[in-house]
Amino acid sequence: MTTDLGDDPLALDRQVCFALAVAARSVIGLYRPLLEPMGLTHPQYLVMLALWEGEPRSVKDLSSTLQLESATLSPLLKRLEAADYITRRRSIDDERLLVVELTDAGRALRAEAEKIPYAVVERLALPVSDLEDLHTSLSRVIRAAATPATTAAAPATTEAAPA
Amino acid sequence: MTTDLGDDPLALDRQVCFALAVAARSVIGLYRPLLEPMGLTHPQYLVMLALWEGEPRSVKDLSSTLQLESATLSPLLKRLEAADYITRRRSIDDERLLVVELTDAGRALRAEAEKIPYAVVERLALPVSDLEDLHTSLSRVIRAAATPATTAAAPATTEAAPA
DNA sequence: CATTAATAGTTAGCACACTAATTAATCGCG
DNA sequence: CGCGATTAATTAGTGTGCTAACTATTAATG
């Protein structure tokens, strides 16, 4: 029927969701002092990473790449525009699309940003293999969470099995 | 000197921080429909987990247990009080402390909540060993991030080594 | 070709999560 | 005892991140 999760399934220190929340906040917190001099928050930094990989990009594109709702990106992009790192304009081909491009200042920022990954890895002082393992585990969970729920009542424990 | 992070250190799909952010949002998103009938958000659920493990607890105590600022907990606890799941009163011994306790409704909610971990694990449809691996990796990173920064300029790559 | 569907963004409203500033209570030490 | 330093919460302000409702544009269909 159901997986055995031990005597106390509600034990806080066993919840993956809790560890995920704390780890995400902790690690993102390490970026704060590094990003602050560039005037970026962590989500804004992620948008810049996406743009440095390819320009121009629509909000829809950024939304699916970063797994963020366009409702979240809308005000965020306006702040990046106010900081003069990006420009926002409607596409000529399809006026539903908002085209986001880097400004010269936004492009120039990349050189500064390249130091950040090294600074974070050094700060964590963990073997890079540990970080790679974590990345692998995280990718698995992301994929699992994105997989549509099986409405079935039947299958079960850890592996789906046809009837 | 510095660790080799490959040809593009800024590649989005290699950033652990990005994977962490997406995974946290994705997994917490799975809880939303499960918690919504109980009138809880995910952070509120974590507070309830902490209280089900031991009562009463001060805000300070919850803050260090959940790794959340008391400024975040303050309004959250007021909402839990408004939902009649907890009570808030000042300690008699030390009036600086706010003592948080469960109401009968809050205690009763535990029975409902016990189904949640099973529902999430089943929904993810991942081997429990994968989740345990992830939890181990996350704990490592949390500990590493919590370790005070070595102001040193010397050490380096992945392992601290005395001179 | 007109009407309806679908798609892309924006806005509003709620709930975190952080920093900084404030308030209130307690502690430490001469 | 008294009084400055600490400690515990709260408040204010900014920035995500979500859902739901809305606007504008484009595509699809009879």
Automatic annotation (TrEMBL), chains A, B:
InterPro entries attached here?
Answer: HTH_MarR-typ, MarR/SlyA-like, Transc_reg_Sar_Rot_HTH, WH-like_DNA-bd_sf, WH_DNA-bd_sf
Q: Which GO terms describe its biological process?
A: response to stress
PROSITE patterns membership: HTH_MARR_2 (PS50995)
Name a GO CC annotation attached to this entry.
cytoplasm
Location of the HTH marR-type domain: 13-143
The molecular function terms of the Gene Ontology recorded here are: DNA binding; DNA-binding transcription factor activity
For this UniProt record, give its keywords in alphabetical order, as a comma-separated list: Cytoplasm, DNA-binding, Transcription, Transcription regulation
Q: According to its UniProt record, where is this protein located?
A: Cytoplasm
Which Pfam family, giving just one, matches this sequence?
Staph_reg_Sar_Rot
- This chain belongs to the protein called MarR family transcriptional regulator
* Species in which this protein is naturally found: Jiangella ureilytica
